[in-house]
Each structure stands twice: as C-alpha cells, then as structure tokens.
Amino acid sequence: MASVFRPLRICIIAAVLAGAAPVSAQEGWWNYNWLYRRSVTVSDVSKTNLKKGRDIAVVTMPTGGLTIADGRDIRVTTATGTLLPHRVLMVGPGHSVRVAFELKPPIKKYFLYFGNAKAEKPKQKLQIHRGVLMETWSYTGGGIANFKQVQRIFERSKKLLGRDFRKDIFLGYNPFGPQNRICSIFTGHLICPSDGQYTFSTTSRDASFLLVDGKVIVSNGRHHRPYRRAVKQGRIKLSKGLHELKVYHVGTGGNPVVVAAWRTPKGRRLWKIPPGAFAPVRRAAPGILERYGRSLHADFIPRHAGETFLANRYFQRYVFEVMLKGRFGSKVQYHWDFGDGQKSSDKKCEHIYLRDGSYKVTLKVKIGGQTLSRTNVIYVSRPWDKVAKNLMDPPASYARIVAGYDFTASDSRDIVGAVIMFKRAGLKEAIIRAGDALIARKKAPSSALRDAMGIYADTLVRAADAPSRAVDALVKAAKMTDAPDVSAEMLARAGRIALEDGKADRAMSVFARAIKKYAALTTHRAIREAKIGVGDVWRHRGNYDKAAEAYRSAGVVKRQGHAKQAVRKGDLARHAEDYLRRRLFDDAAEALDKWEYEVPADKLEGFSTLIRMKLAIARKQYAAAARKADLLVKVNPRSHYAPELLMLAADAYTKMRKTDLAGKTLRRIVKDYPESPLAAKAKKMISPK
Q1: What are phi and psi of 72, to 5 degrees?
Q2: b/e for 561-577, b at 16 or more Cβ within 10 A?
Q3: How do strand 182-192 and strand 132-138 relate by DSSP bridges?
Q4: In angstroms, what CA-CA distances link 85 with 62, 126, 490?
Q5: pLDDT tens column, 433-488
Q6: 323 Cβ partners below 8 Å, 6+ apart?
Q7: What is the pLDDT of residue 652?
Q8: Alpha-carbon distance 106 to 659, whole Å?
Q9: What band does 384 get if pLDDT is binned at 50, 70 and 90?
Q10: Whole-angstrom distance, CA of residue 316 vs CA of residue 327
Q11: CB neighbours (10 Å) of residue 655?
Q12: What is the mean pLDDT of residues 526-539?
C-alpha cells in the first residue's frame, strides 16, 4: 500500500512547493499562501460587445485589516481558480478596499483573495476601457490658467481623497469628503453613436479642461463661477465606437461644480452627456469573508442605512448583521463592540454614531468553547452620494435607539450629541442619565460642557424638580475644564438657578466665586452675568443701595450716546409688549432678557418687572408672577409701578384661589399707596357693596 501512495504524496508536496492549494485543504481554494478570501457576486454580466477592452465590475468591501497596506496582495479569480486582471482603485478609509476586475460572462460569482504578507505586485494589471473613473486629490496650490499648469498640479498632488466610478461627469459635490480645494480627473469611455463632428463643452467652478483621445478640445481655465450656458466649446471629428474622454477639474474654493456636455452629429443642442453614453461598469456585491483551513466563518459587512440632522449636527445610522457559514447549531452567542463604547448581543442591530470619525467595530461569535472574531475599522461620515436626495430620518427614531446607550462608556462629545437629540425628542429621563454620566468625570472638553450642561441643568430644574442638584452639577462642571470662560459660564448659570430657587446665600457664593476666580482671565459675558447676579441677590434681600451698586459695577452695554441708549430701552420694551400681545411668549422673554442684561439697574425701577408679571400670568405662572411683585415692592417700595404690580399680584392670587392673600395685597395698595388711582379700585374690590 505504501508503494501505491508514495507517488501521490510526492505529487502533493510538489504542488505545495509550487504554491497551489493542497487537495485536502478547503474546497476550491485558489492558493494556500493567501489566507483569506471573500466571494463577490455580479448580478448583471450581460456583454457590451464593444471591440476595445474587456467588460469590468467594481466592488467595495471590508477587509478586516487583513490586506497589505497598499493592497498588492489582492487577487481576483473565478470560482474555478482562473486568475483575472484587476486594479486596486483605493484602500481605505478604514478597513475597506475598492477593486475593479475583468468579467468572464456568463460567470456571476468571483473571489477576491488577500492576506499574503509575501505577495508581490500582480503581473497583470487591468486596463480600464469602461465607465467614468473619478480620481480626486487635495489641491495644494498652483496656477490654473492653462492646461500645462493644471497638469503640474496633478503631478504634485500626493494626497488621494478617493477613486471610484461615477455614472457621468455631472458633479456638485465631492463624494470623497472635503468640499473645497480639490482637483479631480474624470476618465470616461464614451460610446459615439456615429461618425461625424462632435461638439463638447464644460461648465465648472474654476478651471476645467476636456480632452478626447488625448487631445485638448475644451479649455476653460482660470478662476470663475459656473456658466449657465455653454460658453466654452470645442469640436472634433470622431468615428463611431469607443473613445476616451478626460476632464481635468480644479476647484480652489467653494463646492466643486463640473459638467461635461456634448452635441452629437445628429443632435441640435448641447446636452449633459448622459450616463448611457458611457460604456457600463457592473457593480458587485461582497459576500462572507472566509479563512483558509476553517470550516466555521463569522463575518459582517457594515451598511450605512441613513442619517438625520439636528442642531447643526449630522448623525449616522448603521446596520450590522452577523454573517455565518458552516454548521453552527442553535446555541450561538453574539457580542458586538461598536467602537464608541457601546455594545450589543443581537444578531442584527441598528447603531447610531453621534460623531464622524474612525471606529473599530468588533464582532465575536461564541459557540461551545470556540470564539470567532472579526474586526473592521469603519469611517463614519455623511453619505455624499445621497446628500443631494436630502433624505433625512426622523430624529425621534434615533433618540429611541440612543436612549439605550451606556453613557458611562461614551466619549464626552458623544454625550453632547445624545443630550441634544433627547431634548428634541422630549426624553427627559435620558437627558438626566446622560448628564449624570458626563458630570461624573474628572475632566471634559469645554465644548461638551458648554453644549450639554445647560440642557442637563434645565431638565433637572423643570422635569426633576431638583434645582439644588443642578447647581451642584454646574459647580462641578466649572472644575472640569481649564477654559475660564466656560467655567465662568457654568458658575453664572448655577448662581442664577440657586437664586430662582430662593437660595440667595448659595447664589451669592457662586456668583462671587465666578468674579473672583475668572474676572481677570476672561471677558466672557458670564462675568457680567455674575456681577448682575450679585445685584439680583441684593435685590432679593431687599437692599436697594447694594443692588444698585452691584448693577453699576456691571455697567451698561454701551450704545452710541445716551440718546441711543434710551432709544434702545424703549425699543426693547415695545418689542416685549408687542410679543406679549401676540402671545409670542418666548420672544417676549428674550426681549426682556436683553433689556435687563444691557441695563440691569432698570430691574429696580419696576417697568420690566411689570411686563414680566404680565408674561407670567399669560403663561399661567401665577405664583411666579406674585413673587415678582413682592420682590420689587420689597426692594423699592417707592416705585411708580408698585401699585400696578400689587394689583397684578392680587389677580394672580385670585386665579390661584388664594382669596386671603389677594385681599391682603389689595389692602396693602389702599394703605401704602392711597394717592394711586388703583387704591380706589382696590377698595371696591375689597368691599364690593
């Protein structure tokens, strides 16, 4: 028996040394030196029957970081192992690669092999004679007046932003990310329908040059805006069939705009060259990634599924689904790590990324005592090819997903996005949970504190009825950053909440700390707010002189001349009253805030308080309205507006069904302000007989 098998064994050893796959390894594996492969499927493999070049397909797929950095280890084969010419168009961003390869109709299934650290560059390189290939680099400067200058720009360009096939040469954005200071080459393979003279034209923002079969036909150089008409034209006689068309475009500022147009021999007008005029490129869909010698395979292909827009931020939605091959049975466990601190145990899950950037996504599949793992670094950003469609998901659907996040594991900047999202969706408990996680940290970016803490503190006050907790959180936030303006802002807000909660001593302490510690370090408006806050504390305590002194310390927001300031005050007052009449309550409050910020001493006079009381009553905040009257009359009983304020307070008490307090307030008008016309009215209200 040994003598029978010896020749076969010698043959196998020889095959291994030659680099062929061992017959006992994995069925259909092209070469055992390549450890990984991914199947790809081309649904449309119909022939173009063009005489020049081969039909091709392109696939973009995740690699798990298992390729050589420049992709030289990538090979493409048929299922039977026939090696095909290919070209690696782009490696990255993240663990992704884009490959164009030759088709062999009617074959639909192909394999991409990679993972050979010793692989050399393939000897065969795909010659592309199909589609419109766009190649984009960063523009680093240089003249764009003529074609030679533009050629030198591309010769110097080193930072490739992207390379992929487009359906035509019609662009108003860069699909590879940066939207200005870029330069692109479009190489299209045009199917001319007949012999004859063709007219070509380009319009673009800044320079564009169009070449046919290597000859410059349209020169549209220099800096300029896109033309509405075909100003720059060129003509050339072409034969029926395939011709190479190139467009060079350099955009030095603003969104990139470039359009290529033509008129055929039988055409009457210049039109944008339609997608059907270019030789087609087929798109391939990637399948599961396999490792040589293994019977069980676990994988995933990240899929961008949507985006939403909120508060000048974009949030991206991805779908992750486990792909399995082999006999796994029923007891399988899945563990996802999405790279932003969040995890999942579902086989298929949606995930919201709250910031753009690179994320290391890891899937672990456990079966029995065995664990299979797959990692892909993905680059999250806006899907530029979908941007023009303006398809936005509702923010509330994203908020429901994000509400389940573990914010103790989130980046502080992610928490900001979540808090903003929760505010829009009205998820108050989620705001508090996210804010709790942020404030539990020792340090946080100043931008995160500025954007999130206001929402968090307001929610604690209004939804949780926990103003003291909000004050403590803001005081803690002031210590979490080295930015004096942000620290001062946190303390000014904390002091304001403490004062509104009736904690005058705590408010004074917080305001004083902001002024003492940060007044010399920043000119941020928070310092002025803290000084005004000190005056408000003295006003709350009924000390007119010290309140006035504090307001004078804060100063007045200067306008041009005293008359200008008077005009400004009157304007803000009229706006506040007008907004109130039209029931635009938020606008009225904003006008009052501006008034009292610019001229804080007016808080002691009574007119702004009168309008605030009317606003509070209109909002049915009767207790707050009554408190405002009591506070002003306490600090300035000689105010001309005191009787009217007390009359409004009596009305507020009546609406609260506190008739005893209403009567007490009316009697106060009669006793303290007998000279006021409202005293007689108050008497009648006390004794209607």
Answers
A1: -70, -15
A2: eeeebeebbeebbebbb
A3: antiparallel
A4: 20, 5, 62
A5: 999 999 999 999 999 999 999 999 999 999 999 999 999 999 999 999 999 999 99
A6: 287, 288, 297, 298, 299, 300, 301
A7: 96
A8: 91
A9: confident
A10: 34
A11: 15
A12: 97
Token representation of residue 240: 């029926």
One-letter amino acid for residue 603 of the chain: K
Q: How is the beta sheet containing 96-102 ordered, strand by strand?
A: 83-84, 75-78, 109-114, 36-42, 282-291, 56-62, 96-102, 86-91
55-93 pLDDT, tens digit per residue, is: 999 999 999 999 999 999 999 999 999 999 999 999 999
DSSP collapsed to 3 states, 345-365: CCCEEEEEECCCEEEEEEEEE
How many CB atoms are closer than 10 A to CB 171? Answer: 22
State the SS3 of 576-635: HHHHHHCCCHHHHHHHHHHHHHHCHHHHHCCHHHHHHHHHHHHCCCHHHHHHHHHHHHHH
The H or E element that residue 320 is part of is strand 313-321
Query: What token pair was written down for 258?
Result: 């470039």
Q: Which amino acid is at 340?
A: D
C-alpha separations of 532 from 175, 386, 559, 659 in Å: 50, 49, 19, 35
Domain ranges of the chain: 28-114, 132-279, 303-393
Taking a C-beta distance cutoff of 8 angstroms, is the pair 103, 284 a contact?
no
Q: Which residue has the tokens 């304020």?
A: 645
Length of the chain: 689
Max Cα-Cα span within the chain = 131
Residues with Cβ within 8 Å of 106's Cβ and at least 6 positions away in sequence, in order, are 45
What are the angstrom distances between the C-alpha of 172 and each of 251, 252, 421?
11, 14, 30
Amino acid at 107: I
pTM (2 d.p.): 0.86
Identity at 5, one-letter amino acid code: F
Q: Both tokens of residue 7?
A: 């020749």
The CATH T-level fold of domain 132-279 is Jelly Rolls (2.60.120)
Handedness of CA 28, 30, 32, 34 (dihedral sign): negative
Instruction: Considering the domain delimited by 303-393, tell me its CATH architecture.
Output: Sandwich (2.60)
pLDDT at 617 over 80: yes
Q: Do the beta carbons of residue 441 and residue 449 sit within 8 Å?
A: no
359-371 burial, b if ≥16 CB within 10 A, otherwise e? bebbbebebeeee
